[in-house]
Amino acid sequence: MKRILNLLAIILMTTSVMMAQDKKSFTLEDLMPGGNNYFNLQPKNIQGLRWWNDLMLKGEIDELKAFNPANNKEETLITRESVNALLAAKDLGKIQHFYSIQMPYEQKWLLLNTRKHRVLLDLDTKEIIWCQAIPAKAANQDWNQTSRSLAYTIDNNLYVTTADGKETQVTNEPEGVLCGQSVHRNEFGINGGIFWSPKGNLLAFYRMDQSMVTDYPQVNTSTRIATLEPDKYPMAGMTSHKVTIGVFNPTTKETVYLKAGDPTDRYFTNISWSPDEKSIYVIELNREQNHSQLVRYNATTGEKEAMLYEERHPKYVEPQNPILFLPWDNQKFIYQSQRDGYNHLYLFDMDEEMGISHKQLTSGKWIVKDVVGFNEKAKEIIIMSTEISPLQSNAYAVNVKNGKRRLIGAGEGVHRIQLSGSGKYVIDSYTAHNVARNIHILATSGKGEPINLLTAEHPMNAYNMPEISLGTIKAADGKTDLYYRLVKPVNFDASKKYPAIIYVYGGPHAQNITDTYNYGVRGWDIYMAQKGYVMLTVDNRGSSNRGLEFENVTHRQLGVEEMKDQMKGVELLKSLGYVDANRIGVHGWSFGGFMTTNLMLTYNDTFKVGVAGGPVIDWKLYEVMYGERYMDTPQENPEGYKNSDLTQRAGDLKGRLQIIIGANDPVCVPQHSIAFLRACIDAGTHPDYFIYPGDGHNMAGRDRIHLHERITQYFEDFLK
Fold it and tell me: Can you tell me the distance from the alpha carbon of 118 to that of 109, in angstroms, rounded to the nearest whole number?
């Protein structure tokens, strides 16, 4: 009997090996963005899905279709050939596909953008009913569907073209002053500088004076003689820019500025309008970022009307979202705050007789990630949250009256939803660790059966995949659970000893491990597993989506607690009988580059090889908003800055460290790595260094393939 069992085991093992051998091996062209086969190995998706009222639009290359979830009927609205014929007749260009079209009105009107023109096409009459020229150099475009006015920037100034085609230059500022663009280096949830009022009658905009900010001397080396192309880069503790908020009236051609007082060392964030267009709401933050105020201004005069709410925190307050008025009640709005330790919804009521009041609408040890929209009939807010798991993002309907929540869709994975006009339906696209991608139409009421639009096949089934697992370990505090992702080598043999690499980021506003396809594993991790490496990633304290205490434990001492947690990952690796404890490497980019370099210096007997991409080396050289939130100023926290300055420990380098940067990195400026090289020379240590000319904070396209070839080869040369 024993002989039979042994024979069966041999047969099974042989069969397994043969099956593995029959499968394909990956190349970087398969696994990395920019690779010629990368998109073929991504889970299938459906582009061009959106809503027109409660009808789902499906924009394809040659046809625009409408699907009615109430009766499961689909019809073709128009073809690309027909559209382009109508456009050509009026010399308005052409469209290449229907992926990006919109139908923003109740009427059956199609909004097209031919790059040179914005066009409205009546689908019933097949007539072009309106068009608007788009200036050739127009950037930061923001179009209001009610007024049909277009706001945009050319160079550093703001312009408006009204529905009748009349263009007005709103600002005329000198060099060093930017209008209508993102400010505060895109912190605090800021991603633009133009804010139309609901009906498009008024336009709020940012004006940023950075003339007092020191120029950082970036250099363009592609010219015959290298050309100076400086960035305005305010470093921690140094003079920052000054921001004001203007309000332009397209009818009167007049601009007023909000009378917010001296803008020096202040941040103006999360701009929103009242539904009646009479007021503007701004969340204002001091430079210390420990005190925020929600302030209302008169949109016509610019006068400050009221300070409605304020928050203080001993470490930092970080507003990320503008207020949202309830569509059925202009006196009530939603405010998002981490005041109880997790980002939650608060319902504010501006009762004229009782004054302003608020109540907490959601609560628990989870966060609201996003407010998607409203179901006005049901009086519900549709949100995305981590209530089920920090690794997930799930849709919920929240009752505004009592805060009760109802899950929408599957209780697994990471979901992205689009809400229909009435809030009755969602297009729900999600992935999970074992789900490549599912797309459904769901009723937000939870009633009825889902309408399946796509069940994607696993795109890598033909390839020899490594085993990918998820687990938890205790943080260095001995109580907090940390998630890790472990990737075993392809054709794993437990009797062997494998080298291991920790991929690390570790900083705020990032999460490496999620319940997405294959637990969000990186293509490079799969590639290295194929080459015989154990790959480990740990989301340490300080990273995202675990609450304020989890994140701000690193305050004033970046790198300290994060490294302690990463070393718990090292302990895990060393506990695995198949990991060679003498061959452990580390790799990361940006904050991960800082972590990589720090780990190589601090635990120089543990890490033999490291590759640090775009690293922060000295936080004094990083920008004001991000740097001072987590470290305070160098003047306030000299000890913290000194301890995190990696140039001071350049002499501790023992293993092989390669630093890679983009020559024109505007985020972690080249001075970081150059200063570290100087310190290493002075200390007699020998890192390796590689520069990508013309690239910024990361590499794209073919440069990204080259980058990962280089990273791979470094570990193959010195860790394998």
Answer: 13
380, 232: one domain: no
Instruction: Kindly state whether residue 35 falls inside one of the protein's structural domains.
Output: no
* Domain containing residue 709: CATH number: 3.40.50.1820
Same domain, 572 and 662: yes
DSSP-assigned beta bridge partners for residue 496:
none
Find the CATH number of the domain harbouring 338: 2.120.10.30
Summarised one tens digit per residue, pLDDT across range 123-176 is: 999 999 999 999 999 999 999 999 999 999 999 999 999 999 999 999 999 999
pLDDT at 385: 98
Among residues 411, 433, 459, which one ends one of the domains?
459
Same domain, 595 and 573: yes
Whether residue 30 lies inside any domain: the answer is no
Instruction: DSSP letter for 266, please.
Output: E
Helix 523-530 with 702-718: angle, nearest 10 deg: 40
Instruction: Report pLDDT for 3.
Output: 53
> Which residue in 398, 423, 395, 388 sits closest to 409, CA to CA?
395
Same structural domain, 616 and 478: yes
- Distance, in Å, from the CA atom of 319 to the CA atom of 298, rounded to the nearest integer, reads 22
How many structural domains does the chain have? 4
- Facing residues of 312 across strands? 291
Q: What is the pLDDT of residue 188?
A: 97
Q: Counting beta carbons within 10 angstroms of the beta carbon of residue 15, is it exposed (0 to 12), middle (13 to 18) or buried (19 or more)? A: exposed
468 and 455 within one domain: no
pLDDT in tens, 89-114: 999 999 999 999 999 999 999 999 99
pLDDT for the residue numbered 451: 98
Q: Do 624 and 684 sit in the same domain of this protein?
A: yes
Strands 167-169 and 157-161, by their bridges, are: antiparallel
Over the range 256-265, which residues count as b (16 or more CB within 10 Å of their CB) and which as e?
A: bebebeebee
CATH number at 121 reads 2.40.10
The pLDDT value given to residue 605: 98
* Residue ranges for the chain with pLDDT beneath 70: 1-21, 353-354
Residue 22 has what pLDDT? Answer: 83
- State both tokens at 649: 């420990």
Where is the domain boundary, 255, 290, 319?
Answer: 319
Q: What torsion do the CA atoms of 503, 507, 510, 513 make, to the nearest 10 degrees?
A: 40
pLDDT computed for residue 139 by the predictor: 97
The region that residue 583 occupies, defined by phi over 0 for left and psi between -120 and 50 for alpha, beta otherwise, is beta
Q: How many angstroms separate the CA atoms of 573 and 582, rounded?
A: 11
pLDDT of residue 21: 63
Query: What's the longest Cα–Cα distance across the chain?
Result: 96
Beta-strand relationship, 656-662 and 344-351: unpaired
Which residue has 């775009």 as its token pair?
614
Residue 11 within a domain = no
Owning domain of residue 438: 323-459
Q: From residue 348, give the alpha-carbon distance in Å to each of 336, 371, 406, 569.
A: 10, 16, 22, 44
Residues 358 and 409 in one domain: yes
DSSP type of residue 652 = G
DSSP 340-407: TSS-EEEEEEEETTTEEEEEE---SSS-EEEEEEEETTTTEEEEEE-SS-TT-BEEEEEETTT--EEE
Could you please report the per-residue DSSP string of 4-40?
HHHHHHHHHHHHHHHHHHHSBPP-HHHHSTTSTTTGG
Whether residue 309 is found in the same domain as residue 377 = no
Beta carbons of 644 and 691 less than 8 angstroms apart:
no
Q: Which residue has the tokens 């202009």?
A: 330
Question: Annotated catalytic sites, by residue?
Answer: 590, 665, 697
